[in-house]
Amino acid sequence: MRSLLGDHLLQRLQQDTEGKLHQRLFRCLRAAIIDGVVQPMTRLPASRDLASEIHVSRNTVLTAYEQLQAEGYLEARTGHGTWVAEKLPESFLNTKNKKKAPELTKVQSSYVLSQRGSNLLGYAAASPHQWGAFVPGAPDVTEFPHHIFSRIQARLSREPDVNRLIYSNAGGCIELRSALADYLRVARSVQCDADQIIITEGIHQAIDLVSRALSDIGDHIWIEDPAYWGMRNTLRINGVHIQPMPVDVEGIIPEQQPKQPPKLIFVTPSHQYPLGSHLSLDRRRQLIQIARQHNSWIVEDDYDSEFRFSGQPYPSLQGLENNAPVLYMGTFSKTIYPSLRIGYLVVPKPLFSPLRIVAAELYRGGHLLEQKALAEFIREGHYEAHIRRMRLLYGKRRDYLVSLIQRYLGSEFIHEYDEAAGLHLVLKLPDHCDDVAIAATALERGVKVRPLSQYYMQSHAHAQRGLLMGFACVNEKDMVMAFGVLLQCLREAKVPTLN
Ligand SMILES: Cc1ncc(COP(=O)(O)O)c(C=O)c1O
To answer: What family does the entry list (predicted)?
Structure first.
């Protein structure tokens, strides 16, 4: 069998045809070392093996190795073979021979990305490492019963079923769709059957699918203001016209007589993201009526409704009326872990077949083994048990964070729309505060909070100031330390504190 280096050298030797074979091999190997194809401190194949891989005599390889050794690129270690030197010869690297990759012309570099691609870069907001105090929306992934889930996965992998190893164009694993239909009917009052559910790679993909399949470039789409930046960015790149709608304690305030009726209305009715209120019954009815009147679709993002720490959970908007014009999105990112990348979209019956086909054309569909494992995990009762356990844990962590805020800052710092729910809360700051600068200083000191003002689309002057603080993936001990750091940042920014 040929090594990767063997393959590489064979290709290079075909291009370098000048001189004797050992000189050509010397040049090709030296270029491979300089270009980093073989890294410093890597062992090279034995001369006999390399000779047979690239069909030259062993002497040819030995001569090339010796010359590279003499020039300082290789080292022979007695009894341990030939290695690339740790430091490459400076003299060679400084010569004019060093090849430079051709530079992109000005025109090429200004067109590397499309207009919408480069716009999106300007709005990119995903944190590089979404873990620790106080990353909003991150669950405690270490608490998941990995041993149970991996046991189910291992069993399924031992009996591989062809149907789980090929592309899916059925909207995902039927067992998962069916387990979800049962769960959603009971836990979220969603009116649905398995044949209305499309499994997606999280809510992000569901937003992409819905906006591409149900709206055209330039169509008007309502979103809440403030809203989840990930939703805004997905809509942005799809070229729709995003119309931000203000939010109050009852949730989105819809325009009663819109001049440009929306094609889609994205909302977070159970737990407005990021402020934390829920959509009142009155507004729910208004929204459904507006959607019916203008043939719009409401898209319900039910990202974290499993976590409500007091009172009853609010039922879904989708289930409020029969045949409501609502598509419902959910995710396992908060209840299991984000990198699982499994979510779901519940659609009205007539939309199932077309959306399933669009999904298959756009994304192909896969991860059926994980989906089947998840179905069993739910059916065996582990999912509900895990949610119950996490609800208790996150509830305690939330109480602890609230107590720190009350003690060191005062209750008025907890946003007035806040309800005891979800995986984050909003620390409200006085209007004059620069929440972006405070979050940046905190981040430099290892504390991750996100500035509330950046969740708004409307002009910054109108945006409320505050910090989103996730409490789910940080234990009490780490929380105190991180809170101390944040408090210091707030003091330096002249935010009045109590102690
Ligand atoms: C409001 C909201 N919707 C959707 C998502 C993303 O969900 P997913 O991981 O399923 O794409 C998030 C993630 O934080 C969120 O906050």
So the answer is: In the C-terminal section; belongs to the class-I pyridoxal-phosphate-dependent aminotransferase family.
Candidates 134, 211, 224, 333: which one to mutate for ligand 1, based on the most atoms within 8 Å of Cβ? 333
Q: 85-139 pLDDT, tens per residue?
A: 988 885 555 544 555 556 666 665 556 788 888 888 888 888 889 999 999 999 9
Rounded to two decimals, the pTM is: 0.85
Contact, 343 vs 332, CB < 8 A? yes
Ligand 1 probe mutation, 198, 200, 228, 342, most atoms within 8 A of CB: 228
Provide the token pair at 83: 């290695």
- Separation of 203 CA from ligand 1 center, angstroms? 6
Separation of CA 138 and ligand 1 centre (Å):
10
Given a cut of 50, the residues of the chain with pLDDT beneath it are 95-96
Question: For the chain, which domains are there?
Answer: 4-92 (1.10.10.10), 143-383 (3.40.640.10), 385-493 (3.90.1150.10)
**Residue pLDDT, tens place only, 375-429:** 999 999 999 999 999 999 999 999 999 999 999 999 999 999 999 999 999 999 9
For ligand 1, whether the C-beta of 333 sits within 6 Å is: yes
Ligand 1: which atom is nearest the Cα of residue 331? 10
Query: CA-CA distance, 188 to 412, in Å (whole number)?
Result: 32
Distance from C-alpha of 433 to C-alpha of 447, rounded to nearest angstrom: 18
Chain CA centroid to CA 122, Å = 17
Residue with tokens 């034995």: 46
Looking up tokens 């737990």, which residue turns up?
Answer: 271
Distance 204 CA to ligand 1 centre (A): 7
